[in-house]
Amino acid sequence: MTAPDSPLDSSVPALRPYRPGDLLALYDVCLRTGDSGADASGLYRDPMLLGHYYAAPYATLCPDTTFVLDDGVRVQGYVLGVPDSQAFAARCEAEWFPVLRSLYPLPAESDTSRDARMVRAIHRGIPAPKSGWASRYPAHLHIDLLPVAQGGGHGRRLMQTLFAALAARGAAGVHLGVGLRNLNAQGFYLRLGFQELERGEASVTYGLRLG
User: Fold this and answer.
1) Is 198 inside a domain boundary?
2) Model pLDDT, residue 30
3) Residue 8 pLDDT > 60, yes or no?
């Protein structure tokens, strides 16, 4: 019987650590899952905007807690995490967003396009959580899989790999946000043991203890 990630079993994508050469693939996966899990490539004039905010800073600044699913031809999915959300937000302000803000000036207030909303997010930065649960769930993550990689247990493999990496770096708990429309993702997180921490108008935040 072939082990799940054995190179002899080409039908099972390999789960491996991120490599710098994967960065453009992460941008692509981020865009093609960016509409509550559906393809967002037709929704943005600039196809890089989602990845600039949701994928690239994590992989670039925290490569040791970034993992990808690779079928030998292309990256089919990824999980990105940081053990300390407060420290990561500060580091993004110092090392990631200044260059992007110079490339993407703030749009006019009348511009309500998706591109404009993402540019405003770049100018706001990644907010560090300030809720009462933040100290118990200091890590946070993003996970995205292309449709071809969904439903085969690959998401669970990615998450469990990241949980181990975050715990090894001292994170006692991890949180994540998901859109209220993305019911499939919500069910996936609940099956992994996440519990609801906070609910807003458009999203819900879940947390999982790692200790």
Assistant:
1) no
2) 98
3) no
Domain extent for 54: 14-170
Q: What is the CATH number of the domain that holds 89?
A: 3.40.630.30
- Picking from 189, 93, 79, the residue whose alpha carbon sits closest to that of residue 141 is 79
Average pLDDT over residues 156-162: 97
DSSP secondary structure string for all residues of 127-182:
PPP-STTTTTS-EEEEEEE-GGGTTSSHHHHHHHHHHHHHHHTT-SEEEEEEETT-
Q: Which residue has the tokens 């080409």?
A: 10
Residue 196 included in any domain: no
Q: How many Å apart are CA 97 and CA 16, to the nearest integer? A: 28
**Among positive and negative, which fits the CA dihedral 4, 81, 57, 181?**
positive
- Strand pairing partners for 38? 35
Look at residue 185 and tell me if it is in a domain: no
How many separate domains does the chain show?
1
- Interval 53-85: pLDDT, tens: 999 999 999 999 999 999 999 999 999 999 999
Contact yes or no for 84/138 (Cβ under 8 A) = yes
